[in-house]
Amino acid sequence: MEKRVTALLRASGVRHRQGLILDALHRIGPTSQRHLAKEFDISPGSISSMTDRLLALGFITRNTNVDDRRSDVLELTPNGLAMLTVVLDVWQGADESIETALGPTKAAQFFALAAELCNAQGGRAPQHEDA
What we know:
mainly alpha; Arc Repressor Mutant, subunit A; two-stranded antiparallel sheet; 2 strands
């Protein structure tokens, strides 16, 4: 399944983890690169590589934080929102493939177990910086 999602996203120029960044910016709004690295539990270098690519593609902007000039704020652009729609469609297609392969009942159980495992391992959706 991961290979299929990767292949479908490759055509868009966005990788899965970059899609997660777009989704996070859509959900929580403008935020710092440092905050995203903390929320995704990845190194500042990794988040920098992902955001640099998204900046180059015009999917996000980086501006100086007016409250703290030592930090930058990342924000989704209209093109980034359009790309997020593509990413979400790919992810939805993956979910539908799982349901087709397992049937509705087993797919629902699979998704519930996957969510339970994610939660047990400390996974959660990115939160606002002040949350």
